Amino acid sequence: MKQAIFEKKHQKTWLAFAQTVQALSSGKAQPNELHSFIQDYRRICQHLALAKQRGYSYPLLESLELLALQGHQQFYRHKSPIFEQLLALIVIEFPATVRQQWRYVAVAGGLFFGSLALMALLTGLFPNLIYSLLSPAQVANMEHMYDPAQRLIGPMSLRNHQDDWVMFGFYIMNNIGIAFQTFASGLVFGLGSVFFLLFNGLNIGAIAGHLTRVGYTDTFWPFVIGHGAFELTAIVLAGAAGLKLGAALIAPGPVTRATALRQAAAVSVKLIGGVVVFLVLAAFIEAYWSSSTSIASSVKYTVGAALWLLVLFYLFASGRNRYAS
Fold it and tell me: Keyword set for this entry (predicted)?
């Protein structure tokens, strides 16, 4: 085909593609232009290859190369600023992934909250049972932290810190360490995640049962109910992410274990991203709200219940329409 005929045949296509690229660059592209962009870009690349193969003139080659370069830049450009990506993760991707992986979440929740409730009940019935998990010194320290006579309630009473900001950082590092431990240990065919879910559930349940039995309910429960909505949920979701990794190693399906693990990791990373956000919120509430002795217990119970409902509603409903579409 002669160059003149080639140019006449495809000139409208090139002009339309140039206009689409310009619209994309300015952020004014229409939906119909976006739908056909990939196909149009491939067509431009094909025309460029044909022009080179047929030895067409340099000006035509230069024009097509420029179009192909501009299309390449738009096709592989960074889609959105980091803030928008973070917002999309929080509002859409994280809760949608939790719903998608509900089986792993259900198993992790059963292991954690089941062991917690059972141990709390048994410790209330058999007082000495707590010493099978904690040493007498640890039990004494725990009683001291939640003693109603304390001016400061919670772990900061032992560390003698006055600065909420210091405790905020401490809570973040401690909680993220527990969550990462629960998640990463899932690489041991899921057994590590099961162990840490049970371990944390039993320990928290034993402490809750013991402090309730000795009469420290007015200090312990108002302290934990607020940040517990985010912190305890985060532990469960970290466990679910670890179980996802373990399941990929145990039953990879028709692909290799390495491929199955990479696919599972892509899902688990989204869960862990949300877990980190939850733990930052939990640390903030724990440092600035839970430890305050100037707030009435009734207010803490009300706010704590509202936070639990908020977490459940968020995980169940947030981003549902966008994700489904």
Answer: Membrane, Transmembrane, Transmembrane helix
